Amino acid sequence: MKKLILVFSLIVSCSIAASAQPRQAEKAQPSPTPVVKRTAPESFKAKYQGGMFGYSQRDEGILKFDDVNERLVFFGEDQKEKFAIPYKAMLVVYPSSRKVQSGTGRAVSHIPVPGAAIGGMFMKKKKNYLIIQFRDPDVEVQGTTSFLLDTDELLESVIHTMGEKADLTRRGDAYYRPAEPKKAVL
After folding, report:
1. For the whole model, what pTM was predicted?
2. Pairing state of beta strands 90-101 and 81-86?
3. How far apart are CA 30 and CA 25, in angstroms?
4. What is the pLDDT along the chain (186 residues), one digit of tens a residue?
5. CA 26 centroid distance within chain
6. Cα–Cα distances in Å, from 15 out to 3, 19, 23, 25, 40?
7. Which DSSP symbol is given to 51?
8. Cα 44 from Cα 177, distance rounded (Å)
9. C-alpha to C-alpha distance for 131 and 177, rounded to whole angstroms
């Protein structure tokens, strides 16, 4: 019996030692940057969420690329220009998304049936935000503004188009303006 246990433990230890051989590490392949298939439309629907100095109310409207004046313009529901961000003032442009409970999910969660609240929690909806960090040339401060866009495809195409028009540098799914090197004081 002792010999059987000794032979069994010898086989197990050899099999563990054989499987624990070091393997050569695989080199990570850089992930290719996604290619945007289309450019953004000249104007598109957007919901202003806040961030621009002097405009604290959320508003639905239209964002429009004004290439002649090199700026992005937001027109409110009344079709009047509310504000504009010059392309040269843009520092960083990037997407953000958040999953929130849908309206249907909120309604279902309030039904007085056992388990309805749990069912309503699983009804999620994805919201896509366009985030723009900018340097306001009028008051010489930096700010961040955001817009809610309808689809993920629209968000990607808008960020790509804006990055190209504002002459920004790409990093992943965002675009940024590289900092200017500081000059030495003599």
Report:
1. 0.66
2. unpaired
3. 15
4. 777 677 767 676 666 655 555 656 555 555 455 554 568 889 999 999 988 888 888 889 999 999 999 999 999 988 899 999 999 999 999 998 776 555 665 565 656 667 656 665 656 667 889 999 998 777 778 889 999 998 889 999 999 999 999 999 999 989 999 887 777 676
5. 30
6. 18, 6, 16, 22, 59
7. -
8. 24
9. 14
